[in-house]
TrEMBL record:
Pfam families: CCB3_YggT (PF02325). Signal peptide: none annotated. InterPro entries: CCB3/YggT (IPR003425). It comes from Paenibacillus borealis. This is Cell division protein.
Length: 72
């Protein structure tokens, strides 16, 4: 969802339709803490979604490890 939300930011007026608004409501609560911490580079380049995806990958790996330990 985050990836599609990022792609939608490159297309004009796509975030204004139903799907864009729905994705915004689902993704923005997760991205907003990262946007508060990480300022945009060069004034316009927002790398916070990339950092959010990396954090999500680490969380997924942690959950897989925990589940693997519990159900051996």
């Amino acid at each position: 969802m985050i990836f599609f939300y990022i792609l939608m930011s490159w297309l004009p007026n796509v975030r204004d339709n139903f799907i864009g608004e729905l994705l915004g409501k689902l993704v923005e609560p997760f991205l907003s803490p990262f946007r508060r911490i990480i300022p945009p580079l060069f004034g316009t380049l927002d790398i916070s979604p990339i950092i959010a995806l990396i954090v999500l990958q680490f969380a997924e790996g942690g959950v897989h490890s925990i589940v693997g330990l519990l159900f051996r």
